[in-house]
Task: structure prediction
Amino acid sequence: MALNLDAVGKPFAPLTKDYTWKDVVLYALGVGAGFSDLDYCYEKDLKVIPSFSIASIFDILMQIGLEANVNLAGVLHGEQELIFHNPIPVEGSMTTQGKITHIYDKGEGRGALVVGESDTFHANGQKLFTSICTIFGRLDGGFGGQNAPKTEVIFPDREPDFTVAAAPSPDQPLIYRLSGDVFSLHVDPEFAKMSGFQKPIMHGLCTHGFACRALVDTLIPGEPELARRMACRFSKTLYPGVPVKTLIWKTEDGKALWRVVNTENGEIVIDNGIFEYGPIPKREIRYDGRVAIVTGAGAGLGRAYALELARRGAKVVVNDLGGARDGSGDGSAAPADQVVSDIKAAGGEAVASYDNVATAEGGEAIVKTALDAFGSVDILINNAGILRDKSFVKMEPENWHSVLDVHLNGAYHVTRPAFEVMKTKGYGRIVMTTSAAGLYGNFGQTNYTAAKLALVGFMNTLKIEGKKYDIKVNTIAPVAASRLTEDILPPDLFDKLKPEFVTPMTLFLCAEDCPVTGNIYNVGMGFYNRAAFVTGPGAVLTDGAQIPEVESVLESLDKVATLKDGKEYFELNEQVGDIMAAFAPKASDDDGAGEAGRPSVADIFEALGKSFQADAAAGVDVVFQYSISGEGGGDWYTAIKDQACTVAAGTHAKPSCTLKMAAPDFIAMMSGSLPAMQAFSSGKLVIEGDIMKSQLIEKLFKR
Ligand code: NAI
Result:
């Protein structure tokens, strides 16, 4: 089975995982912590062992193997590097985004290396760690690719400065596997024997966890948050119960080299270890090489954004029509010119645009200015704004339309051509400007509030359309002193509400590192908070067929209206999904076979012939035997020859390989909710015979 070389550079679907302090403690126990290091085992003042990071995103390793189509029969975890950006909180939710960065060829018979890199963010917005994981595909070499560049770790020619002995228990893998890696090799004696081992072996990452504890205890005792980087190569397998030693050489301030040695036979189990530690370096957020458009940047908030973006390296298009507060008048070049000259005087790069966002031509011209002057658009802040306040009955169409034209249509006119550029380049950061008036209401501003909240709706869809292209779209709701607010805010408050207070949040939303999309933030003075649409859990008023009476709404209003235990939705489908789920039959157990709405095993085999891909079967002569246990199970086989497929119940005399699974797992795998790689590595799918041929299944049958 060929490796999928096209997988390089394509992002995986983000992986989100919720965890609690119990997961943190379970991991610590799995890597040998106990009463001697209670900091990692007791929820009071709990600390997280840094290597918990890789255990918590274990599924990413599987993803890398799966996407690259590595031959399962020869897959090994080769190397692991972790870069720690921020301390790992003891609970919450982590989202990991990653991709395969390289596939190297070591040559025919020598294997291939698949390198996957991922970044993991906490729900609190902080980037926690980067993982660079190398998977060794023993059976995948010789495809004519380049070999990996040589890397060497040179250990000092002296005895280690520290030696930390540890005695993993003979039962260690049984605890460690509960942290995520439930591969049968570490638990099932039969499976281990079939794979060429005397008995189940230690997880390499479990030994890695022992090493991490040793490194932290020796070099940064009690301060795991000071770990900055841990890298290593897994070199030999280890049986549970065999004592190990972590050898540590301190080579410079904040850096050590390390290895783990099998104390019984002297073999190096983990080699080429690097451990770096120290305080989190303060990292400046920069926009070097980025091109930013800020509309309405001649004054107030836009001016503050433009100056700071330029100070931090961006090339800025300073757009401003230079009109009056209500948008009237012919406009003036002076405000935009002044900001451009301030930026240049401070050593930055900027160009002025005097175009009107309220027209489609104006929007096109603003983006053209960026392309002509700087060749691209990476950042767009839709900020231009006017006010025409009137109580509703006095709100003539002219005042209504001119405000919508600048705020809402203005954002549309500029965003459309900018989005096109961003989509092509696969990167973009867009900020909409709403207002607390739009989010919550304000007397005399029906035009303004309608436009401002419409921008949130605009963001809600654009964030979805942009997701695939790394275009993040967020919204700011500022409160700041400017000519728009000078007669609204009391003078003492006006003096305190400097626009510069809003800049950090807006610029954060424009940063490459910005982890969020579709969020709204209120900012005024030093106060920052997030606003969101929260939807209550609701109530079912009928069985879904009968129309409820108006009175039933009144009777159930408490339940219908409550926001307690409410949640946010990222998109429409999630909300519609909840409506459907409210009426879905509750699963009685996890057996699943033949349940309403789910196919039975027999249904799947009946449909299998239709999903056969004759085009992919040229020259293929193979028989897959399936042995499905449990209710609804049985024996089936598929025989493929001369680009034709026969599916039949029963056993074939000469199968190429036999796939053994329990019925619910088989149904889950065939309906796509259980990845084949995961099923295999967790022991849910056992393959006997020619494992390599089994990998043809994904190609030969379309889901
Ligand atoms: P500002 O009046 O100081 O700045 C707005 C700028 O937009 C002006 O320089 C103006 O010339 C420019 N502009 C107006 N129409 C334009 C058009 N058609 N084309 C190009 N440029 C145009 O006001 P401020 O306060 O800095 O407002 C910036 C944004 O923040 C606006 O969208 C406003 O609605 C929003 N906002 C401001 C709040 C505040 O407390 N200052 C509160 C909530 C929202």
Summary: The longest strand covers residues 92-105.
